[in-house]
Amino acid sequence: MKNRIYFFTGTGNSLKMAKDIAAGIGECELVPIKSDMNMDIPTGYERIGFVFPIYYFGPPAMVLDFIKNANFASQGDTYFFAIATYGALPGVAVPMVRDALKEKGVTLNFGSGAKMFSNGVHNYNMSKRLEKITAKSNKRIAKIVPSIVAKTTGGIRNTKQFTLDMYRKKMANINELSQEFTIHNDCNLCGLCGDICPAKNIYTIDEKITFNKKCEACLACVQRCPKRAINHTKTHDRRRYTHPEIDNSEIISYYKEV
Prior knowledge:
Layout: E1 3-7, H1 13-25, E2 28-32, E3 40-41, E4 47-53, H2 61-69, E5 71-72, E6 79-86, H3 93-103, E7 110-115, H4 130-149, H5 161-171, E8 181-183, H6 192-196, E9 202-204, E10 209-211, H7 220-224, E11 230-232, H8 248-255
Parallel strand pairs: 1-2, 1-4, 3-5, 4-6, 6-7
Antiparallel strand pairs: 8-11, 9-10
Helix pairs in contact: 1-4
């Protein structure tokens, strides 16, 4: 039977996770969570998963909104799983996804997380230990995949109200993040930032990069700009990061409007 994974990614960490899971279970479609996507969840799948990063101890707003607004037909015995990638702590992301699915009449069978390279460049300068951290995350991914292949159940923690409140406070005005982006003169209007933005928040108008108010805080535009021309608050002199196995062309293949 077919399998499907919905993923959200900026630096590529979650796409790396989704690809490894897909390779493990076989016959698996990878579907990006992005603006204006098909909201119908198909039937007849053996497994359906959600893979996403953690922002402020919870899921990206677009991921949660997708689950809350998706159309779930009768899913039969489909096995549902959610995997969160994070740089520090797993937070309440998986429990929040579980609760959102429950409201749609869907049971989340399995949830887990993997610590990967911490890449919140707008909050701190990132580590130099890329190879060591990536090696550790690959080992963690290798432990998660067999659980999904075997349709293991459980692994979902309880929601902590304090963490949930903190997440909601941080995410309340996340779309306003766009107001704090700056564009350096080195920008050559290549258009990459718009092509890789899952929210379609970035446009080139009159030879100028323009941001709307739909930012999801993935910061792919900052991390992937070939000229380091896009910055957010204090990122100018900070290191950049993208997963070493996920290049710009692969991200574009999922997010660029055709």
